[in-house]
Write a structure and sequence with these properties.
globular, alpha/beta, four-stranded mixed beta sheet
Length: about 140
Amino acid sequence: MATEFTKYSRPTALLRTDRVPVQWQISDTLVSYPTALAEMKAQVKRIAAQTDVEKVWLLEHPPLYTSGTSAKPSDLLSPNRFEVFKSGRGGQFTYHGPGQRVAYVMLDLRRRGRDIRLFVQNLESWVIETLGAFNIE
């Protein structure tokens, strides 16, 4: 079951200048990759239609691999060990599994500006600030 909360004061780096909060969702159980992908696609559509707020979703997946655009099936030593899902990202294979928290960030970059370098810098600051909130340096 997912636990949802809205964070107003942190992380500040990802808040718009009008200080509209980003919704945070934390899933306490494993979420399958297809379920997560379907929910993210639906959320992005709602954000684009301005019928829902931006969201950061923290979750864990059951054991699986995602394959990027450079992934070669021959690179997997045990190709049948875990399910493999194609993704639209660059890179090769990435393992996801229990104990590995994944943060999916769904933001409207049209409203935040289209400066990808600034976005990545802000994302880095957000991660550092968030870890600091948990006393992790």
